[in-house]
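Tutorial, part two.
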Amino acid sequence: MTAHHAGRPPGDSSQRLEILLADYQACREDDRVNLATLVAVFGVFVTLIGLMAAAVTQTCQFKPKPCIATPDFILAATPLIPAALLAYGAMLGVAAALRSYYMRGLEEEIREHVSAPITSLGDIMPASYMGITTEVVSLRRGRLPYRLLANLIVVVVIVVFGGYTAYVGFHVGHAEQIVMIIAYATVAILLVWQVSQGTVGGRAFFERAAQDFLNNREGTALPRVHAGTSLKRPRQKPSLIAYLIFPRPEDWIKWLIAPGIFLAAAWSSDSFARWPTFIALWLILEYLIYAARYQWNDIRGVEEDPQHSERGARRRLPVGSTARIRRNVLASLTVAVGRLLAAVLVGKALGLIKPVLTLMALVFAIAIVYEGLRSVRPSAPLTRPTPTVVAIWCIAGLGYGVRAGLGFVAGGLPITNSLTWIGISCFVFFGIMFVLLTWVLEAASSCYIDNNGAWRTKGEAALKAHLIALLRYVPIPLTGTQKPQAAGHSRGRRRRVYSVQADGSQQRILIPRGRMTTPWNLALAISATLGGSLGLGLAHATPSYASEIITITFSLVAGGLLAACNSQRMRLTIAGSAAVVLFGAITLFGVWPYTLLAAGPWLTVALLYFFFRGSSYRDLKEFGPHLLETISSSRKALGLGPILLYIVIGKRAWRKGKFEPESPLHRTRKAPV
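Running the prediction step on this input gives:
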């Protein structure tokens, strides 16, 4: 023990260790979220550069007529969007560097409380993960191959961003060129300097930050606030304001579906001219229409969602006391209706009212049927899927077909084209696979492994029928429900009953092969088969029965092999090998350079399947970045009639929020006196 800690009371050791472990666990959680956010930022950056490059090449500065007339200053400003993403990534990287040094300090002190190393790892003490990882990933003294790969990523990002910026700069006026040189050179210098501070100069950067903290550098000390107890209000997590701004932030990955399809369709049809229309409809669909649809779903599930074991990670509509539930439900309903009105107004202003109304009708027609089916409760515990459950499984993928249809039509493929419907069907089954794999992991999160290694459902779990029915396809029994405890006493002896390592939300239950005849494997087979046929059409392949039969057969067999694998390494190998073979085969029938699209649809399906089979439910929920939390404030909502409100939000939300003692649909009128 160091001299600094020598004066610590003897009884303080265990309490201090608990604080250190709690701090270390919080830092590890932040590190996982930070990594997932960086991955999401990188994916959005690559997609954005592709969309913007395709868009600017259709302007009159880049091609003769017909073209889109765009002022030079707008083109000159387009690199600001990827620059903002790069700046955000650099900020996350600096925070990660500071966190790594702090965690290594925590590990060093935690090891002082441990007397023996980890048995299976030789002399390695517990709480050494960050120290060992740093020996490889550190850009100061890490392994040379890793440093080369990390530097390669940085160089590629700089080349892509710098190349796009220079490409735009060569096609604008001299005044805009001068402004671009000054502005983007300053941004580049700041980014390079900040990245170097957080990587190669990380040690000195951490030391300066720590010294500033210890010395209470001017402007950094917390203000001293004295307030009466009557002013203290409980903090609500998650924030209602954050939820209303962006419901379900973990679903950001769905935003990439339509842009990816648009790029592929526009490339195949040589029709990038409709990119402004696509971007407008894409934002209206995802941020206004689908966000309102998610809010409606969360309102109807306000009774079930708080009982979910992963309610914190799911970040659904915040609940609390009865008054707060009522207020939050009305606030969310108001914002959802406002989103739909905004979609109509924006569509009208842009001359896109017909496609906006069509998208709105499709999304909410699917939503109405889905919510109606979900309201049907089984009369007895499920032993096998009912027709209602199967219908829910199937209808859950239709929304992905809407997104795909937007991408194909905006990309230049007519709605009457057979290839468009092949693509829409492919992504409908892609969506079914996506949703079912998510739901089976969600069902597993409501279970745990007991001391005997048997799966049991948690006592507080409120599993929905369409989730319960999926458990029969994985080794999780539907019986043996009991409430797990963190620790307990049994006959005078402390006995660990339940640990976080045995929590079903952290178990990657889909890595083993398991049963082949599962709903998600059936959806994989159909989606992969249609994906091969879609790639054949996008590659402008010469139509023939031979090419169709060969491609469809190979895609189906490769999808079956993917499902039959018993390890993630083998799944990745099959996905890559099949994509190469598919690309090579379609090259014989297709037209260059459209053949580069040949394996894209099949590979998209395979990689998503690969990702889910190697994930736990917690992995999925931590993939998206956290939104900023603010203090919730909401007032009275729209004065809707009680009967209409009851129909819209559902019986469970009405009862949970205690809007009125009884249902307005079953209220008896008193006889007039």
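The beta strands are 447-449, 455-457, 488-490, 493-495. In part three we will examine how such features are distributed along the chain.
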